[in-house]
Specification:
Helices cover 41% and strands 21% of the residues. With 319 residues, the chain is an alpha/beta fold. The chain folds into three domains: 105 residues, Winged helix-like DNA-binding domain superfamily/Winged helix DNA-binding domain (Arc Repressor Mutant, subunit A); 84 residues, 3-Layer(aba) Sandwich (D-Maltodextrin-Binding Protein, domain 2); 100 residues, Periplasmic binding protein-like II (D-Maltodextrin-Binding Protein, domain 2). It has a five-stranded mixed beta sheet. Strand 9, helix 8 and strand 10 form a beta-alpha-beta unit. The longest helix has 24 residues. The two termini are 27 Å apart.
């Protein structure tokens, strides 16, 4: 046990010995406690909650203080042992969170009967999108989710004109949209299988400096495609563009047959295995960030409030 962990345990005991009976635990604290129970490790539970380990431990100590009981005996390297009070809290915490979810479903009975969701590329197949849809269905069983694929142009236009209520997209996005981050993953380059670099396992942006990159129609926000193509490159040089494509299938065809390359999320390796294509890691490319986005002007509606809550709950489950 390191001195930091020992101090953390002693602080936790001091706080737990001073109960605050007039303050009930928050749902957030109960959620974090159940994450700790699932992971059986402070560091892993903190990572799933997108918190630092000290911040996560502080929340658990605050929960102990509110309950007036020690829930976990801390050990070294983030490990712990549940106390009798901790074991007893598990069913209570689960019941409280389940009751809250049921109340949310009841509040959602006045929602419209359908929500229209867009997906770009293979986003609908990604685990985070599936989780959001599952949580939304569990909380609002009467709400039908209509999922529709969008191309590079439609992804913004369909939200702007109200054709879609929200969409699973990739950053960056215009300021007129708001979003919640669902996942981050590396970006890879898609090359023709006969490219001289194809035999390598990874490349840098400098290795790709002489390659022509697929372009998108002018209706697509330029900042979005410049981000994807890393234009300009770190040394200030501009990207040379080739054939224009408007969706992922056209993009992959262009790479295989029209002498261009493209940057795509790492998940494309699994989602789009195609003859004539090779995917390589790009060691110095920024990551790709998956989001659920909606028009900022409509974010206070009951429908989008329910969707945001479902997305937040799904993110807490899967991070």
């Amino acid at each position: 046990m390191t001195p930091a962990h020992g101090g953390e345990r002693r602080a936790g005991r001091r706080q737990a010995a001073d109960p605050a009976p007039d303050r009930d635990p928050t749902f957030h604290q109960l959620r974090l406690f159940l994450l700790l129970v699932q992971e059986r490790h402070f560091g892993r539970a903190a990572a799933r909650a997108y918190l630092t380990q000290p911040a996560f431990s502080k929340q658990i100590r605050a929960l102990e203080s509110r309950l007036g009981a020690v829930l976990a005996e801390r050990g070294g390297s983030g490990r712990f042992r549940l106390t009798a009070a901790g074991r007893g809290l598990i069913p209570c915490a689960e019941a409280a969170l389940e009751a809250r979810a049921r109340m949310g479903a009841l509040r959602g009975q006045d929602l419209p009967q359908r929500i229209r969701l867009g997906v770009i590329g293979g986003e609908a197949a990604m685990p985070y999108a599936q989780s959001v849809l599952r949580v939304l269905r569990a909380r609002h069983p009467a709400l039908e989710a209509e999922v529709r694929g969008v191309d590079f142009v439609e992804q913004i236009e369909a939200l702007r004109d109200g054709t879609l209520d929200a969409a699973f997209l990739r950053l960056p996005l215009p300021a007129e949209l708001d979003w919640v981050v669902l996942a981050r993953e590396p970006r890879v380059v898609c090359l023709p299988a006969d490219d001289p670099l194809a035999a390598r396992s990874a490349v840098t942006l400098a290795d790709l400096a002489q390659h022509t990159v697929a372009d998108v129609p002018p209706q697509v926000p330029r900042a979005w495609w410049d981000h994807w193509t890393v234009d300009p490159r770190p040394d200030g040089t501009r990207v040379r563009y080739g054939v224009t494509v408007s969706d992922i299938e056209a993009l992959l065809f262009a790479v295989a047959h029209q002498h261009v390359i493209a940057f795509v999320p790492a998940a494309a390796r699994t989602l789009y295995p195609r003859p004539g294509l090779t995917y390589l890691d790009v060691s110095d490319a920024p990551p790709s960030i998956a989001v659920l986005a909606w028009p900022t002007a409509r974010q206070g509606t009951p429908l989008l409030t329910a969707l945001r809550a479902a997305a937040a709950a799904a993110a807490a489950e899967n991070t």
